[in-house]
């Protein structure tokens, strides 16, 4: 039998070297990103950690740094989330189900699809302007929690619709076939054979969309969320504020103390985001065996 | 067009093996009757020895055919080609045995003189040799008309055999000393008549190959 | 034998492509009928006509008549969901739902309104027994269907189809994706089922058709070339094209 030539050869060495070089380049790119992120987090934590105290949760914002807290912004953010979540979920998932399972593939449908994906990338302040025109002024809801909820729902809706559609699309066709072949109607098929597998993907998409929403400042400022709110909103039509706005407010003050307070607010916000992302991963893992 | 080159190649091999077997068989018949006519013991021995070749060829055909069935999973006409090859090989092998039996009679008649010069038996043998050749031809060309002709030829052979029987029987009764030889010659006639029946079987196999149905040509 | 399916002058078009041409065919009841033919000849298309799965392809147009049990299945009054309860289907790739074994089988009956647990239990057991899978899984009904092997999954799909008590079972190359032993098990299963169900199977494996079916239909380019008793078709086919195809000398 002829000898197999498995040893060195010019071509292979050159290829291996360029392989390793690229490996290093990609590693460097990733490292830069991670290092910058770490640097940011470390800076923030160093600035704000000594301002973290129970008072942050119990005190309202104040002109006096030592008395200032985040009670109303925290509550505002939480209310916003709790109200947005079901609304955006129902509208977003409903729209996705309609587009993916019922609407067909005509020119009109494809046009709508294209527009929705585009809307997901529109700067958030545009939604603020839209919210101002339609909800605050047009429907006379004023600068209220309700306007905020509706505006932010509009903001996240395209993201949820796209994510939900992807999740539905990922369910293989033959599963639908099996359901239809047993005599199921379209809705029976969607609800029993398609949605259960798509839920992890949909939930992940929803949570990620919401976690984007809690960091938004511009649209809420547009619709008039106040920057100095020393009370808790009592009903949907009350004024309110959210954490990013308060943080923004503190950062723009000259005093060092308020910068530190802002940093501590950012830490809280990061913790909330972290929890939400962990939840998304947990849900995905728990239900992925059913995919 | 999808071809089955290897398969067709093997089927051709089966056909040429059968063609060879047919020729061998015809030679064996010719030689055995010739040996009887001149009571040539050497010629008779040669026929007896060569019979083993026909056995070998039959085995070869069985082997090739079995292998084809296992590996190629033939259906319809392809399957019939192989089954028919088995049948014809078997018929030819039996025909060879019968020719060998004729040669054995030559050996047994050693030291005797023929009670009469053989005329009808060689004629019968010629007719049967023609039948063998026709039957193989009908198989190779898949000619059912030729196959049906076998039935008529067989009738003629039967007729000639009954003439020979009459003739030898009268010898038996008139000349007791020649009884032994007369009986052996009657048996030779019987052997040749059986060869004709087998040749007719080959004709039937051809009809089965072509149509998928078996006729009975041996009434 | 009574014919339970009667197809007359059936023509099917995908847009302008003429997929089925003037199909006239009778399918006898409680037997196994095999559809054979080269790829793209229309055998799967015809199969899917029988449970109107073709309806889901938007550009499909049908002319002609398909009668099952005396009813024209393409008439306006027929509800497709009811048809598919009577005419079940098993697909080429085993496609169990990512649910438990029990829930997979109970899926069909639940669709049609059966909620009583005792009734469902009985249906699940009976269906799994018919599919010769009960003994293998009876202690693991709550386990995910995806934990079964390929052959078991396909038998599960058969049990699932039988759970709604159809009269006819359509099998679209149901053993193509399986190993030889699983294939043989399912062929045995089909032999047992044929006493209760009419089975129509599409197969690209001719020898399977010869082994398993009582009636074989040969398709070519959207037409039925020959339909005959299986033994006859495989030993003395009447059409030269059939002979060429089954002998593998096909082009």
From TrEMBL, chain C:
Its EC number is 3.6.3.27. GO terms for biological process: phosphate ion transmembrane transport. GO terms for cellular component: membrane. It is an enzyme of class 3 (hydrolase). Coiled coil: none annotated. SMART domains: AAA. It comes from the Bacteria. Keywords: ATP-binding, Hydrolase, Nucleotide-binding, Transport. The keyword Transport applies. GO terms for molecular function: ATP binding; ATP hydrolysis activity; phosphate transmembrane transporter activity. This is Phosphate ABC transporter ATP-binding protein. The gene is pstB. PROSITE patterns: ABC_TRANSPORTER_1, ABC_TRANSPORTER_2. It holds the Pfam family ABC_tran. NCBIfam families: 3a0107s01c2. Gene3D superfamilies: P-loop containing nucleotide triphosphate hydrolases (3.40.50.300).
């Amino acid at each position: 039998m002829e000898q197999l030539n498995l040893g060195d050869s010019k071509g292979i060495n050159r290829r291996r070297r360029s392989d390793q070089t690229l490996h290093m380049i990609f590693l460097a790119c990733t490292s830069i990103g991670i290092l910058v992120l770490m640097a940011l987090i470390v800076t923030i934590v160093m600035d704000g950690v000594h301002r973290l105290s129970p008072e942050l949760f119990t005190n309202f914002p104040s002109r006096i740094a030592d008395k200032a807290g985040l009670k109303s912004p925290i509550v505002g953010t939480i209310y916003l989330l709790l109200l947005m979540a079901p609304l955006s979920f129902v509208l977003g998932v409903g729209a996705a189900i309609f587009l993916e399972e019922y609407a067909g593939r005509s020119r009109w449908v494809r046009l709508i699809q294209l527009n929705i994906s585009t809307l997901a990338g529109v700067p958030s302040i545009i939604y603020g302007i839209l919210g101002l025109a339609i909800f605050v002024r047009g429907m006379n809801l004023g600068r209220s929690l309700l306007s905020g909820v509706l505006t932010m729902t509009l903001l996240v809706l395209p993201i949820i619709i796209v994510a939900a559609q992807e999740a539905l699309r990922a369910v293989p066709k033959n599963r639908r076939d099996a359901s239809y072949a047993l005599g199921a109607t379209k809705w029976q098929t969607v609800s029993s054979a398609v949605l259960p597998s798509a839920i992890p993907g949909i939930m992940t998409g929803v949570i990620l969309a919401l976690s984007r929403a809690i960091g938004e400042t511009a649209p809420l400022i547009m619709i008039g969320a106040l920057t100095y709110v020393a009370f808790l909103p009592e009903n949907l039509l009350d004024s309110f504020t959210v954490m990013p706005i308060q943080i923004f407010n503190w950062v723009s003050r000259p005093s060092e103390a308020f910068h530190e307070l802002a940093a501590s607010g950012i830490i809280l916000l990061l913790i909330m985001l972290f929890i939400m992302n962990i939840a998304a991963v947990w849900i995905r893992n728990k239900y992925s065996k059913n995919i | 067009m999808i071809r089955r080159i290897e398969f067709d190649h093997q089927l051709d091999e089966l056909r040429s093996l059968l063609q060879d077997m047919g020729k061998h068989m015809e030679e064996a018949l010719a030689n055995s009757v010739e040996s009887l006519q001149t009571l040539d013991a050497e010629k008779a021995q040669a026929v007896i020895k060569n019979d083993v070749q026909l056995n070998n060829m039959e085995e070869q055909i069985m082997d090739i055919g079995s292998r084809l069935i296992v590996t190629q999973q033939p259906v319809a006409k392809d399957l019939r080609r192989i089954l028919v090859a088995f049948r014809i090989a078997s018929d030819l092998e039996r025909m060879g045995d019968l020719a060998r039996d004729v040669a054995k009679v030559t050996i047994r008649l050693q030291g005797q003189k023929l009670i009469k010069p053989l005329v009808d038996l060689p004629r019968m043998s010629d007719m049967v040799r023609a039948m063998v050749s026709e039957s193989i031809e009908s198989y190779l060309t898949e000619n059912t008309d030729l196959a049906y002709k076998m039935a008529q030829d067989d009738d003629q052979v039967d007729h000639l055999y009954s003439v020979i029987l009459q003739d030898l029987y009268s010898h038996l009764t008139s000349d007791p000393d020649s009884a032994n030889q007369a009986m052996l010659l009657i048996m030779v006639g019987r052997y040749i008549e059986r060869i004709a029946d087998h040749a007719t079987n080959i004709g039937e196999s051809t009809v089965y190959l072509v149509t998928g149905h078996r006729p009975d040509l041996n009434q | 034998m009574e014919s339970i399916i009667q197809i007359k002058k059936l023509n099917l078009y995908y847009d302008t492509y003429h997929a089925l041409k003037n199909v006239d065919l009778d399918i006898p009841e409680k037997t196994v009928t095999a559809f054979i033919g080269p790829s793209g000849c229309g055998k799967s298309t015809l199969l899917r006509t029988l449970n109107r799965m073709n309806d889901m392809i938007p550009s499909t147009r049908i002319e002609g008549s398909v009668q099952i049990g005396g009813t024209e299945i393409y008439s306006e009054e027929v509800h497709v969901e009811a048809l598919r309860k009577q005419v079940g289907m098993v697909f080429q790739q085993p496609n169990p739902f990512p649910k438990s074994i029990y829930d997979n089988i109970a899926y069909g009956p639940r669709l049609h309104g059966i909620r009583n647990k005792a009734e469902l239990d009985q249906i699940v057991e009976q269906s799994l027994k018919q599919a010769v899978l009960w003994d293998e899984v009876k202690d693991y009904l709550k386990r995910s269907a995806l934990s079964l092997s390929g052959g078991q999954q396909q038998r599960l799909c058969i049990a699932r189809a039988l759970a709604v008590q159809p009269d006819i079972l359509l099998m679209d190359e149901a053993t193509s994706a399986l190993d030889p032993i699983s294939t043989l098990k399912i062929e045995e299963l089909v032999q047992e089922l044929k006493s209760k169900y009419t089975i129509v199977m599409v197969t690209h494996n001719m020898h399977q058709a010869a082994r398993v079916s009582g009636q074989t239909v040969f398709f070519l380019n959207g037409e039925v070339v020959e339909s005959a008793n299986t033994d006859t078709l495989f030993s003395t086919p009447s059409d030269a094209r059939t002979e060429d195809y089954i002998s593998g000398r096909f082009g």
